[in-house]
Amino acid sequence: MAKVLLVTIALAVTLLACGSGPTTSSAKSATQVQADLYAIDQIEVTWHRASSTKDLDLMMSLWADNATFTVGLQTLTGKAAIRDFFATKAAPFRAGNHWVSDTPAYKVKATVDGDQGTLYFECHYIDVATRVVKSVVGADMKVARIGGRWLITNSVSATPVWGA
Q1: Burial 85-110 (b: 16+ CB within 10 A, else e)
Q2: CA distances from 32 to 26, 110, 135 (A)
Q3: C-alpha–C-alpha distance, residues 100 and 122, integer Å
Q4: Which string of DSSP letters, residue by residue, matches 17-62?
Q5: What are the residues facing 135 on neighbouring strands?
Q6: How far is CA 67 from CA 94, 98, 159, in A?
Q7: Distances (CA, A) of 53 to 50, 95, 123
Q8: pLDDT at 163 (0 to 100)
Q9: Measured between alpha carbons, how far is 68 from 76 in angstroms, rounded to an integer?
Q10: d(CA 77, CA 68)
Q11: 24-158: which CATH architecture?
Q12: Given this model, what pLDDT does residue 159 score?
């Protein structure tokens, strides 16, 4: 019995020693950064799903309560104002427009620094029937981890410069 106890203690000490070095901490940190970048990228994925299906609730799930959204010369503040924009003015959400939204992968850029980050992507809105690109819009965002979720805190929308 004492031999089993000694082997168990030796195994426990060995396992603890292997997992306590700086490499493990660094690996955990790198893994967390990758997980955060993936979660931030999912904002872009969800944005396109929401705009392609005209799902206003899904679109609004991406925004922090006190977010700002600058479109043209107008800055909207708070989810209610942003929701109203998508419901009444945003072309992809208009009843007569049957568009799918897409972003070329090379036009997505994300950064993360702790609980803050940035996200840039372009929306290429394509008419389903004609397969013609109807609109191209860039979204330059600040994002934050709020309540365990990555949300948009600030977004500026503009027509991107082709070839940039």
Answers
A1: bbeeebebbeeebebbbebeeebeeb
A2: 10, 14, 35
A3: 13
A4: HHTSSHHHHHHHHHHHHHHHHHHHHHHHHHHHHHHHHT-HHHHHTT
A5: 125
A6: 23, 28, 21
A7: 5, 11, 14
A8: 53
A9: 5
A10: 4
A11: Roll (3.10)
A12: 83
Q: For the chain, which residues score pLDDT lower than 50?
A: 1-21, 164
Evaluate whether 142 touches 124 at the Cβ level (below 8 Å): no
**Other Cβ atoms within 10 Å of 135 Cβ, number:** 15
Q: Quick one: tokens of 60?
A: 């609004």
SS3 helix, strand, coil % of the chain, rounded to 5?
A: 45, 35, 20
- All structural domains of the chain with their residue ranges: 24-158
Determine the pLDDT at residue 79: 98
Tokens for 70? 């600058």
State how far the alpha carbon of 31 is from the alpha carbons of 3, 21, 106, 116, 148, in Å.
39, 16, 22, 16, 16
Residue-level pLDDT at 37: 97
Quick one: pLDDT at residue 5? 36
Question: Is the pTM of the predicted complex or chain greater than 0.70?
Answer: yes
